[in-house]
Each structure stands twice: as structure tokens, then as C-alpha cells.
Design a protein that fits this description.
It is built from one helix and 23 strands. With 358 residues, the protein is mainly beta. Strands 1, 2, 3, 4, 5, 6, 7, 8, 9, 10, 11, 12 and 13 form a 13-stranded antiparallel beta sheet that branches. Strands 14, 15, 16, 17, 18, 19, 20, 21, 22 and 23 form a ten-stranded antiparallel beta sheet that branches. Strand 15 and strand 16 form a beta hairpin. The chain is globular.
Length: 358
């Protein structure tokens, strides 16, 4: 009997599901950068990944609007060797939002599903994402087609590139903390020429046009244990340039890490070190729903340049506790450079209610 019990114990231990080991993010070898089109697709060996499209639109009547469409891929702790099609190895999460001052607050929706059965997926090799009736697909000509159907609005857009991709950090390896492993692989596609249709509840479909920004990041351990969240801005500048800046905040609110990238209209790229980048709140807004306070107007410094960031509307809070578990502020903002109008951007602020957990 004792021998049988030992045998059963041995079999049980060896039959236990294997905990996945996720690929680390490491500096790229000298002379190597992210590879396209392969890196446009999913990287299921890494824990977390997202494709983030944000931008400004105008209706045929000239009304300015902001939009956000995000697809997240999140690898679970489930045993990857499990052959069942029902095994939840990867989760696909989607957020979609419309910023319209006439509505008075952000209009948004969220979805989530386990990957599988052709209903939800993030494919490798190129950008091909699906979550029920939401999708993002990159075409052979490099353009992206976005389709989302929400409770408040339906949006179908074509995002056409006008510039090369912008590799963030060191050829696509982007530090997010004081340790090299606290990093992501990260590229942006600024100045996307955007056009499509917007249908709002109770109204006819209307033509919209504008400019968008696409971010794609993947990582396994992006944040320092002391990090609470981040402030990020991606700006399409009026002169054809592009600016990305972020700071990671500690649990005390102090800057833990920061970086910025500026590509001017000639194509020259300038990277700014953590000590050269700062965010300073100029105006705060408190959500009447969550009581979270956000610095919705901000002064950003990159080296000797000062940028002023002001929102299209104060209330652009997105409560995603039903999907990603976070409450964050993500919205359309105006950006000025040394006091002069410079472009339009999107500002994201996370971790102001409670520390963010990826």
C-alpha cells in the first residue's frame, strides 16, 4: 500500500501542469533591429502585447473627435502543452473609445475572450487581430483596416502610412525601468492618413477623416516592482514630425524612468534620456464616477523644449475593470511647442487610482 501511494504521488507530481516560461526582453544584438513584417504580428512567447491605434478625426461638418482602438494579447499561466482547444492559453482583450465634447464624456466599450475557434485571435507573421466583430488587419500595401461595433457607435477606418515606422528606444528595444529586463520591444507608426465611416446610435453614418498613430509593444516584465503606472503621449505634429514621450511613476508619484523620441520632418531622430524628460501637472480633473484625480493638462519637457498638453475634453476616463482590470485616462489632446500650436496627440495616464498590474 505504501509503495502504491508513493507511485500515485509521483504520477500526480509529474502530471501537474507546467507553468509557462515567458521569453525575456533583451537588448538587440549590434546592427540588428526589429524585423518587419514578422514583428507586425503577434509574439505569443511573451507575456503581454498590444496594438494601440489613436487619432483625431473630423466629420464632414468639421466637428473634431478623438478615437482609440486597442487590442491586447495576454498569455495566461495555463499549461501550453494542453492539447484542448478550450484551454485558455491566450486572452484577447479590446477597448474602443470615442472622444466627443458634445457627449460630455468618453463613449467606450470593451470586450474579452479566450483565443480560439476563429472568434478571437492575434496571428503571427503580420497584424491580423480579431475579437468577435472587432478586427484590425494590415494589408499588403501597409494600410490597416479597423472595424469596431460598440453600444454607442460603430467605426470603420482605413489607416494608411505616410512615413516609415519609428523604432522606439535602441532600434526597438525600449527601456521601462532602471534594470535592462524592465523593457519592451516597441515601434510606432505616426502620421497615418485616416478615413472611414462613423455611425452613432440613432444617427446616420457619416464620413470622417483625420490622422492617427499606431503603437505596438510586447514584453514579459515591463515594469519595476515599485512602479505604479505611467504617463504617455504620442503626437502627430503639424509640420509632419512625430513625438513620443513617457514617464514611469513610482508608488510615491516620483519619476522612476522616462524616455522621449522626436522625429522631425526631415527624418532626423533625437532620443532623450530619463533626466531630459519630465511631466509637470498644470490642471487636474477628478472623475465623478471613480473619484480618481488626473493631471489632464500637462507641461512636458524634452531637453530644452517645452510642450504644453491640453485635453479636447476633461472627461476621457475609461473604466476597463470588466476586461483588463484597469481604470485609466486616455484621450485626445492639443499640443503646443514653446507656446505655439504644434499638433494633435493622445495622452494616456494609468495607475492614478491604484497601481497598475500588467
Amino acid at each position: 500500500m505504501r509503495l502504491l501511494l508513493l507511485l500515485l504521488l509521483f504520477l500526480a507530481r509529474n502530471a501537474a501542469p507546467a507553468t509557462p516560461v515567458f521569453a525575456p526582453v533583451r537588448p538587440l544584438p549590434p546592427g540588428r533591429a526589429l524585423q518587419t513584417p514578422a514583428d507586425f504580428g503577434a509574439h505569443p512567447g511573451y507575456r503581454t502585447e498590444w496594438w494601440y491605434a489613436t487619432g483625431w478625426l473630423k466629420t464632414s461638418g468639421g466637428t473634431p473627435l478623438g478615437f482609440q482602438v486597442t487590442f491586447f494579447r495576454s498569455a495566461t499561466q495555463h499549461d501550453r502543452a494542453n492539447p484542448s482547444a478550450f484551454a485558455p492559453k491566450q486572452l484577447i482583450i479590446g477597448h474602443a473609445a470615442l472622444s466627443d465634447p458634445a457627449a460630455g464624456k468618453l463613449q467606450y466599450d470593451q470586450k474579452s475572450a479566450r483565443e480560439g475557434f476563429g472568434l478571437a485571435y492575434a496571428k503571427v507573421g503580420d497584424t491580423d487581430l480579431k475579437l468577435d466583430d472587432w478586427s484590425m488587419l494590415r494589408s499588403a500595401d501597409g494600410s490597416y483596416r479597423l472595424t469596431v461595433t460598440t453600444r454607442e457607435f460603430n467605426l470603420t477606418l482605413r489607416l494608411a502610412p505616410t512615413q516609415p515606422i519609428l523604432l522606439q528606444g535602441e532600434r526597438g528595444y525600449s527601456r521601462k525601468g532602471p534594470r535592462p529586463a524592465q523593457a519592451s520591444y516597441y515601434y510606432s507608426v505616426p502620421q497615418l492618413q485616416t478615413a472611414g465611416t462613423l455611425s452613432r446610435r440613432g444617427a446616420k453614418a457619416e464620413i470622417v477623416k483625420g490622422t492617427a498613430w499606431l503603437d505596438h509593444e510586447w514584453s514579459s516584465q515591463a515594469l519595476d516592482p515599485d512602479a505604479s503606472g505611467w504617463d504617455w503621449v504620442g503626437a502627430n505634429l503639424d509640420d509632419g514630425g512625430a513625438l513620443m514621450a513617457f514617464q514611469i511613476r513610482s508608488k510615491t508619484g516620483a519619476k522612476l524612468w522616462a524616455h522621449a523620441t522626436l522625429r522631425d520632418v526631415s527624418g532626423k531622430i533625437t532620443h532623450y534620456l530619463p533626466q531630459q524628460v519630465s511631466f509637470e501637472a498644470q490642471q487636474r480633473w477628478r472623475s465623478p464616477r471613480t473619484n480618481i484625480e488626473y493631471p489632464v493638462a500637462t507641461q512636458l519637457k524634452t531637453g530644452s523644449t517645452t510642450w504644453q498638453i491640453k485635453p479636447l475634453q476633461d472627461d476621457q476616463e475609461l473604466d476597463a475593470r470588466r476586461s483588463s482590470g484597469a481604470v485609466y485616462w486616455e484621450g485626445a489632446v492639443f499640443i503646443r511647442r514653446d507656446g505655439m500650436a504644434a499638433g494633435r496627440a493622445y495622452l494616456e495616464m494609468t495607475g492614478y487610482g491604484q497601481p497598475l498590474k500588467l
